């Protein structure tokens, strides 16, 4: 049985975070059950973009601090790294407050610049290159932020490990999957299984709802979660938020593949009951496709009506061009200082929305998708 621990934490008070982390890890044996003296420990927070901590886009620096301190007290050498969607690791770490924590604690920043091929890439990948710091670590501690995700539904322990793929190699994997969300979810599941983090500790003190992972709204949840299995942690996170397995593509595909931890029947929940911590209201990501059976040939013809695709909010857009630069299928171009989206080439990955610094990319649902949601048929 995969054990996942939940513990209440109302805010990011420094002493409170350290005490809560210690209590959280006790049913798992404490940090010393995982970290041995002299080991290099790679701590992988979510550092998607250079946003202030209160925006809830990145893992909060006080949670990172608490984990660094626990690793150091266990005798480990703490490294903190990620490959952000926009900007360098150092730039993003400085803006979100993590760089200051790294410097104050004597930890080391791992910029995730260099990478090398996985020795035995999972079957769903044509090829796979991973950050050298991840491959060279003695163990990995996964430190996600709990957020909605426009493409996958939810980003938590499984999705956070995608940051081990460096820079522009991420768009290449989006292109490999194309508009097939199930294939992209399988790739993420295979990546998580390949990396096998020792622990996943989730910052759900303030989570993100709505248009995540970069443009949603902060929502107080007041919880930390921890477990060894990323899938089991994500199952507990869905239960915490009152969402279904179908609301998260990685969890949905994992259930179809009957992977351990895909559903709560495979999970031993310890600590606070999820229902006692559940926020009164939580706004999930918008549905992006219809889940009832539509023949493939018909789905392709009716794609715009059956799916959700990005749309520009011209009132918010500043014409910075980041969405154009990072679009995996190169379906965007600047015209008159505003991005134009070629919907025939768009694969619906929503990288443009994820990385837009102004929240100027909206999710526009097709007519049949909106109707399916009204009648309870859509994802």
From TrEMBL:
Pfam families: DUF362, Fer4_10. InterPro entries: 4Fe4S_Fe-S-bd, 4Fe4S_Fe_S_CS, DUF362, PSI_iron-sulfur_center. The keyword Transport does not apply. Keywords: 4Fe-4S, Iron, Iron-sulfur, Metal-binding. The keyword ATP-binding does not apply. PROSITE patterns: 4FE4S_FER_1, 4FE4S_FER_2. Residues 308-337, 338-366 form the 4Fe-4S ferredoxin-type domain. This is DUF362 domain-containing protein.
